[in-house]
Design a protein that fits this description.
heterodimer; A: mainly alpha; Translation Initiation Factor IF3; Ribonucleotide Reductase, subunit A; 2 domains; 4-stranded mixed sheet; two-stranded antiparallel ribbon; 16 helices; 5% strand; elongated; B: alpha/beta; D-Maltodextrin-Binding Protein, domain 2; 6-stranded mixed sheet; 10 helices; globular
Chain lengths: 409, 282
């Protein structure tokens, strides 16, 4: 039996006619004999090639024209008939949906062959298997990852517009020197905080897209921090400050940590958690409005990073009773690795004291020194509170916090 | 060797290794020991087929005719056992620029005709045969410019046809020959800008490659081979990528009715003679 014609009008297969043909044929059952009408030059030549390539039968007019009995509504003649083949439906036999696109549509163990497909997409059977190391929901998921991502996306700020780069800088040269040294230290630490999530971002199964997006925007946050810290440091100086071997060794233990849970624990919960206090300290003791605003905006971003680290580790710990033990070992192992390093380098410590002092009189330095001591006390209290929220008993939290690197991050 | 079915194929593209490695795994999983030998050109493949180097040849249409004629000369039996669905009922076209004052084959007299590789059935031989049937003999009535890409591979590489199409648009030839599907491809990719070319002549339908066997091939292995070919389904996600690479949706039983145009061209122009003389001398 012959179907109603597909009318291509004057559209050639080289100009989009193939799209109309595919859509039209998809509506017909396999085996349907479909007249094709059209007036484009070489349509019959191209229909023959199209049919062969896509697995349809082909018969050229005039027999086809007789079958159709009349020309199409556009007035174009039927130039051939195609007999619909089964290649297109065959391709999708055995295909499956990769979970669902909704927030609760992630499955516990997404298949490797779902690969880069959008969550909720229909995936062709036989798609290649990807090797994503983090493919277990319990390892990576946080129930509020989607909300945190949306919050992060909405809170992105433009360094050019958000920072008062031209604000007055009335402070003396030694305060500027202390600030440049502190910023040099911050850049180094934020580089570690960029590299670590960027590495894990590429290892998370894209099925957990909210987590992947969150890690990506976390890396983008750090990229922006590196930019603004560098730009501020170079406002009044032509060179940056010092980078110590001890500082880099401390960060190396973070960058080298291969386990996602342990790395995000050390980086986000302990390191960035401590940095929240440091950025708050620098906001309060900033010598100018530009620096104060940079520290305020950076701290906002860091707070989200800490929130995600806490959220997914709390969830992970609830599903995996061995996790807390592994986190404890990670702190102890890192402490052991850094036992013989100097901790926070004297250059950074002194710079923080000078920033808080604002001048070099003994009385001012005493105030600055006390402020840095208070900062370290707040960092310790914050770490203990987060460790308790993860499920560590208070005394253990106290002991573990004390083992955290003296380099802060 | 007789416990493994051996196939000969020409390596016209690196994907040939992917295809036959894939089929080898697929056959092995279904109990057919299978291996393959690659040649750089069809003439060597046909020669080695008769030397007993393998059992089944994946032959171009010209290689099929070469094998058939050598078999006839030697009193051997030669059969085409299978082919792709896409090997059946191809046509080629002779294309001119839309604004050229060339309205008929006769108008090509004295003009420059761009063809593919000298040994390409689809882009050279069948178009030349069909033009001759319309009274225009290439080389005598019009200049034939060959775009030789990978001679010995019988036009399996699309490069020669694309070069001829580009030469047409640059005005270096007045007409260019290509397979119908490549005319659509070149139009879609812009090599032939839409609306700027016209098909002057479409050849009759012809068939392309086939699996060729000679008498004496191991019967049971060969039967298993063709049974498995015909059992390959486009539904099967394991074999579908290989079918896509090889350019088919289903294997069909071999037929030899689609080689008449090429055979007539070979008779008329003597294209087979150098190879047949070489084989006779060997």
């Amino acid at each position: 039996m012959t179907d109603a014609p597909i009318d291509l009008g004057d559209l050639g297969l080289d100009a989009g006619g193939a799209v109309l043909l595919r859509l039209g044929l998809a509506e017909r059952p396999v085996g349907a004999v479909v007249p094709i009408a059209g007036s484009a030059g070489e349509l019959a030549v191209h229909l023959r090639a199209f049919a062969r390539a896509e697995g349809h039968g082909f018969a050229e007019a005039p027999a086809a024209r007789r079958l159709a009995g009349a020309c199409a509504p556009s007035g174009a003649l039927v130039v051939a008939t195609l007999t619909r083949g089964d290649a297109a439906p065959s391709r999708w036999r055995g295909a499956e949906r990769a979970g669902a696109a909704t927030a609760d549509g992630a499955v516990d163990h997404p298949k490797a062959s779902w690969g880069l497909a959008a969550r909720g997409a229909m995936v062709e059977a036989g798609a290649p298997a990807f090797r994503f190391a983090l493919a277990d929901r319990d390892e990576v998921w946080a129930d509020d990852a989607g909300a945190l991502y949306r919050e992060a996306a909405a809170a992105q700020w433009d360094p050019g517009a958000a920072i008062p780069w031209d604000a007055p800088r009335p402070h003396p040269a030694f305060v500027e020197d202390a600030l440049v040294q502190t910023l040099t230290y911050l850049i180094e630490n934020e580089t570690a905080a960029l590299v670590v999530p960027a590495r894990f971002c590429a290892q998370v199964h894209p099925h957990f897209r909210e987590v992947m997006q969150l890690l990506a925007i976390q890396a983008a946050d750090e990229a922006r921090h590196i930019e603004v810290f560098t730009r501020r440091a170079m406002l009044a100086r032509s060179e940056l400050g010092l980078s110590t071997g001890g500082g880099q060794r401390s960060l190396q233990t973070l960058v080298d940590e291969p386990d996602f849970a342990l790395a995000s624990f050390l980086l986000s919960v302990l390191g960035e958690g401590s940095f929240l206090h440091l950025l708050g300290f620098l906001h309060v003791h900033a010598p100018d409005r530009c620096t104060a605003e940079i520290m305020r905006l950076a701290a906002q971003d860091e707070a989200r990073h800490v929130a995600f680290g806490m959220a997914h580790l709390k969830r992970h710990a609830a599903h995996d009773p061995t996790l807390l033990g592994r986190l404890r070992l990670a702190i102890e192992r890192r402490h052991e690795a850094l036992r013989h390093t100097a901790g926070l380098n004297a250059e950074v410590f002194d710079a923080l004291v000078v920033l808080a002092a604002g001048e070099l009189s003994p009385a001012a330095i005493a105030r600055g020194h006390a402020a840095v001591a208070e900062l370290q006390r707040q960092m310790d209290a914050g770490r203990q509170a987060r460790l308790r929220r993860l499920g560590f008993p208070a005394d253990e939290a106290r002991g573990l916090s004390a083992l955290h690197t003296r380099n802060f991050m | 060797m007789t416990d493994t079915l051996l196939l000969g194929a020409v390596a016209y593209d690196p994907k040939v290794v992917t295809i036959w490695d894939g089929f080898q795994r697929w056959f092995a999983a279904r109990g057919l020991p299978f291996d393959y030998v690659l040649y750089t050109n069809y003439e060597r493949q046909v020669e080695q087929h008769f030397a007993g180097a393998f059992h089944v040849a994946w032959n171009s249409p010209l290689a099929w005719l070469q094998a058939q004629r050598v078999a006839k000369a030697r009193g051997r039996d030669c059969r085409a056992v299978a082919m792709r669905d896409t090997d059946q009922d191809l046509t080629s076209v002779v294309v001119v620029r839309a604004d050229a004052p060339i309205r008929s084959v006769a108008d090509l007299r004295g003009k420059r005709l761009g063809v593919g590789a000298g040994d390409s059935p689809q882009a050279t031989m069948i178009p030349l045969q069909q033009l001759a049937e319309h009274g225009l003999v290439g080389g005598r009535d019009c200049e034939v410019r060959r775009f030789d890409v990978l001679v010995g591979k019988h036009g399996d590489h699309v490069g020669g046809e694309r070069d001829a199409a580009k030469a047409l648009m640059r005005g270096e030839v007045d007409a260019a020959c290509m397979i119908d599907g490549n005319h659509l491809l070149f139009a879609q990719e812009g090599t032939l800008p839409r609306g700027q070319t016209r098909v002057l002549l479409q050849t009759g339908a012809y068939d392309h490659c086939n699996f060729t066997v000679l008498d004496g091939a191991p019967t049971a292995l060969l039967q298993r081979f063709t049974d498995l070919l015909f059992a390959m389904l486009y539904d099967d996600p394991e074999v579908r990528p290989l079918l896509d690479l090889e350019g088919l949706k289903a294997w069909r039983p071999g037929r030899t009715s689609g080689y008449a145009l090429l055979e007539r061209g070979c008779e008329q122009f003597g294209w087979l003679q150098p190879f047949l003389r070489h084989m006779a001398a060997g």
